[in-house]
Amino acid sequence: MRFCVEESVFQMFPGFCRGVVMASGIDNSRPCAELEGLLKDQEEKLRQDPQVDLATHPRLAVWKDAYRQFGSNPNKFTPSIVFLVKQVKAGKPVRSISPAVDAFNLISIKHIIPCGGDDMDSVEGDVTLGRAISDETFAPIFKPEEVERPDAGEIIYVNRRTGRILCRRWNWRNADFSKLAPETKNLAINVDGMIPSIGREEIEQAAEGLKQLLLRYCGGNIAIHYLDNQTREVDFQF
Questions:
Q1: Is the pTM higher than 0.85?
Q2: pLDDT score recorded for residue 237
């Protein structure tokens, strides 16, 4: 399976770096009270952190700006990390879904960085971050019957072979067909950073932290690869 970021993305966002945490043979089926507790602890730290302001924090502002650059209104279509931080700051607990999802939500909150995962057994061939043509198809998570098309030029995470979108507006909303489920065995979780709002070293720390959580609570075999302006694609065998 090939993971790639198209040149058009780097033309707009040369400082973009994606850590791809790839895991095979995991067990995502067992709720874990310890991991749920760690997630709640991280929520509370963020909630009490006065330096994380929704209006001014650079790691939130950079994603709002990115949405505007590819023609999307971040106030209408909220970047995932902005939505997550807003919920936590409002005192709304992050719902525990599964160990893998809890793990990447914990990392998102800890580093204020967007993360999102997909079941790789649902995908045929490549997965690509690139700009939409508008003939691709998307069915939102938990609404598989509602098929829609992206806006031309929108940044999407897509299987180019089938035209099926895994995530619209970069990290706004995931598709139903590739969602992580208790029965998921093979997955890829994206850890996305915009340098210089976050340093490359911290992006790698976030990806490594996620790897360790997955190993501890889901098991399996896990590797990390990085995609940036110098390395735009990587092959991986699940």
A1: yes
A2: 87
| Inter-residue contact 218 to 35 (CB < 8 Å) | no
In CATH terms, the superfamily for domain 2-232 is Phenylalanyl-trna Synthetase, Chain B, domain 3 (3.50.40.10)
Q: CA 10, CA 97: separation in Å to the nearest integer?
A: 33
Residue 79 CB: number of other CB atoms within 10 A?
22
Give me the residue spans of the domains in the chain. Answer: 2-232
Q: State how beta strands 164-168 and 173-174 pair.
A: antiparallel
How far apart, in Å, are the Cα atoms of 19 and each of 26, 47, 142, 150, 203?
19, 26, 26, 25, 7
Q: Which two tokens stand for residue 31?
A: 């709720």
Per-residue pLDDT tens for 102-158? 999 999 999 999 999 999 999 988 999 999 999 999 999 999 999 999 999 999 999
For the chain, what percentages of helix, strand and coil (3-state, to nearest 5) are there?
30, 25, 45
